[in-house]
């Protein structure tokens, strides 16, 4: 066992506070990672506040983890002590089901789904067939901490061309937007729409541009329009009905990154025949869709959840190759509760990344 420290919430109504705990020593196929940075994802906030009614407390979020390997189990071959590595949203899966065999561990159909980096198995024992839990744990502690131990095949390599703090959000925000664009075949010359211009939208627009697409970003916030232009994209206000009319049936793919309930019907109208709009931000029910619009032009509305391990490595390498990454602001962990408030109010276009060196203050205290 190793003594560890992190920031966790004890209840849905409490703020994140320091929590001392223990990590297991690495098993033969596991590595121990000294965490340097961890990105702040909107889903961390949903989870801490139990907004999906499935939070296990204490809740220690963080699934955009970058750090250095500090110990490696005896059977580890992919990573060595000192390597810069990353951990995204998953730390294990069933390894038996069809999606796992296909390298899509993010869609694991095992009895407990995949093992999330924090908050434990996606399907807890209480609702799993036979009450089973193949992972032997109900809760996992994520990257708002100084150390983590993970199976080597769920650990990503951070390319040298990426700064570690910039690489962190690619592990969730990056792959969440990259995977659907790959799946639905976004290519050079396509017209891609991005709905919502927060951390996910920023990453989505940069990836689509690097794929050679023409990009239009839809935002509620006038102040964010200039940011779209800086990315070489066209910025459009969600309230601009004239613009919507002019853009009807002109998009090859639309990605909604809005992290809450919203009306997607105006966007479905913007798709060309046979094309898809994927919603990755909102997990809650959406207002009713106009099926007539879909029937008349054989359009699809789809969802997508993060990406597999191989695809996560692919997006890290893609970002390194194209020299892109999220806009970030590095904060000490002591500012995490204020950062949550600003993200909830939609005030930030960049991704907060926690500098884990700031945890040393808590260790001393
Ligand atoms: Zn996330
Ligand atoms: Zn599986």
Mean pLDDT: 95
Element order: H for helix, E for strand: EEEHEEEHEEEHHEHEHEHEHEHEHEHEH
Gyration radius, rounded? 20 Å
In one word, what is the shape?
globular
Low-confidence stretches are none
Bound compounds, each kind once, are: zinc ion
Please describe the biggest sheet, giving its number of strands, its sense, and whether it closes into a barrel. Answer: 7 strands, mixed
How much strand content do the residues show? 25-35%
Helix content: 10-25%
Any key phrases for this structure?
365 residues, alpha/beta, seven-stranded mixed sheet, six-stranded parallel sheet
Explain what the structure shows:
The chain has helices at residues 42-48, 98-101, 164-167, 173-183, 199-210, 225-230, 241-246, 265-268, 291-297, 309-322, 336-344, 360-364, and strands at 2-8, 17-23, 30-39, 65-72, 84-87, 90-92, 115-116, 147-151, 156-157, 191-195, 214-219, 234-237, 251-256, 271-279, 300-303, 328-332, 351-355. With 365 residues, the chain is an alpha/beta fold. Strands 3, 4, 5, 8, 9, 16 and 17 form a 7-stranded mixed sheet that branches. A 6-stranded parallel sheet has the order 12-11-10-13-14-15. Strand 16 (328-332), helix 11 (336-344) and strand 17 form a beta-alpha-beta unit. The radius of gyration is 20 Å and the shape is globular. The mean pLDDT is 95.
């Amino acid at each position: 066992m190793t003594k560890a420290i992190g920031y966790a919430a004890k209840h849905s109504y409490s703020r994140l506070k320091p929590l001392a705990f223990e990590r297991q020593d690495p098993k033969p196929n596991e590595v121990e990672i000294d965490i340097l940075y961890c990105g702040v994802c909107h889903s961390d906030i949903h989870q801490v506040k139990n907004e999906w009614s499935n939070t296990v407390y204490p809740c220690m979020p963080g699934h955009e983890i970058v750090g250095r390997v500090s110990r490696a189990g005896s059977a580890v071959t992919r990573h060595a002590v000192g390597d810069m590595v990353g951990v995204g949203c998953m730390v294990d899966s069933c390894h038996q089901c069809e999606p796992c065999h296909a390298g899509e561990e993010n869609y694991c159909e095992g009895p407990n789904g995949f093992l999330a980096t924090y908050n434990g198995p996606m399907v807890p024992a209480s609702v799993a067939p036979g009450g089973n839990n193949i992972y032997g744990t109900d809760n996992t502690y994520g990257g708002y901490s100084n150390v983590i131990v993970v199976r080597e095949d769920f650990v990503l390599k951070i390319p040298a061309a990426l700064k570690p703090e910039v690489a962190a959000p690619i592990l969730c925000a990056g792959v969440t937007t990259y995977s659907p664009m790959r799946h639905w075949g976004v290519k050079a010359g396509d017209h891609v729409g991005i709905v919502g211009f927060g951390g996910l939208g920023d990453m989505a627009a940069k990836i689509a541009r690097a794929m050679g697409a023409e990009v239009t970003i839809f935002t509620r916030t006038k102040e964010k329009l200039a940011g779209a232009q800086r990315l070489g994209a066209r910025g459009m206000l969600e309230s601009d009905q004239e613009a919507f009319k002019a853009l009807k049936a002109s998009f090859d793919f639309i990605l909604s990154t809005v992290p809450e309930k919203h009306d997607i019907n105006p966007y479905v109208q913007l798709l060309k025949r046979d094309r898809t709009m994927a919603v990755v931000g909102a997990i809650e029910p959406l207002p009713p869709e106009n099926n007539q619009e879909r029937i008349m032009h054989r359009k699809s509305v789809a969802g997508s959840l993060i990406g597999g391990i191989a695809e996560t490595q692919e997006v890290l390498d893609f970002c390194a190759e194209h020299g892109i990454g999220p806009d970030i602001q590095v904060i000490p962990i002591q500012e995490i509760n204020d950062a949550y408030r600003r993200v909830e109010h939609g005030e930030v276009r960049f991704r907060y990344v926690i500098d884990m060196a700031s945890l040393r203050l808590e260790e001393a205290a």
